[in-house]
Amino acid sequence: MRGSSFAFAAGFGARERYGGQVDAMEANEQLAARISEDVTRRVAEVIKKQLGETEQRLVAHADALNADLKHQAELHREALRQDAKAIADGYAATLEGIERELADLNKKVDTKFSDRDLVLADHSKRIVRLEMR
User: Fold this and answer.
1) What contacts 6, CB < 8 A, 6 or more positions away?
2) Which long-range contacts (CB under 8 A, 24 or more apart) does 83-86 make?
3) How do residues 99-130 score in pLDDT, each as one tens digit?
4) Radius of gyration (Cα) for the chain, nearest Å?
5) How far is residue 43 CA from its own chain's centroid?
6) pTM for the complete prediction?
């Protein structure tokens, strides 16, 4: 018997006097110990089952969140890619515009220098003709 209060009482002759009652009390105490062990075991099983189910739900939820996060990251990456392409296209168009303006300016400058050269040549011819007279 495990630490029974009845075992203590039995040491003083209670078993001889109250043998049947002591035996019944010990049986009840043993029954209570078995019931306690059974309840403890069943509660542990229920808790273990519930924790396992909770863990499965948490893992499933974490997996869903991870998948959603990956999807959102992919959308963000695609948006960044489109923005970068739009910026690059805009920059290229700006450079092409600058290049056209420079080409037009170059044509104007070439025309003006050509006109100036023609005017100077004409003046030179006039001066030479005037000096020859």
Assistant:
1) 14, 22, 25, 26, 29
2) none
3) 999 999 999 999 988 888 888 888 888 888 88
4) 53
5) 38
6) 0.45
Give the span between the Cα atoms of 90 and 37, in whole angstroms: 78
Looking at per-residue confidence, does 110 or 11 come out higher?
Answer: 110
Q: CA 89, CA 47: separation in Å to the nearest integer?
A: 62
Rounded Cα distance between 72 and 66, Å, is 10
Whether 4 and 26 have beta carbons less than 8 Å apart is answered as yes
Tokens representing 2 are 């495990």
Euclidean distance between CA atoms 42 and 116, whole angstroms: 109
Quote the tokens at residue 44: 């542990």
Residue 16: its pLDDT value, please?
64
- The helix (H) or strand (E) run that includes residue 29 is helix 14-132
- In 3-state terms, what secondary structure has residue 79? helix
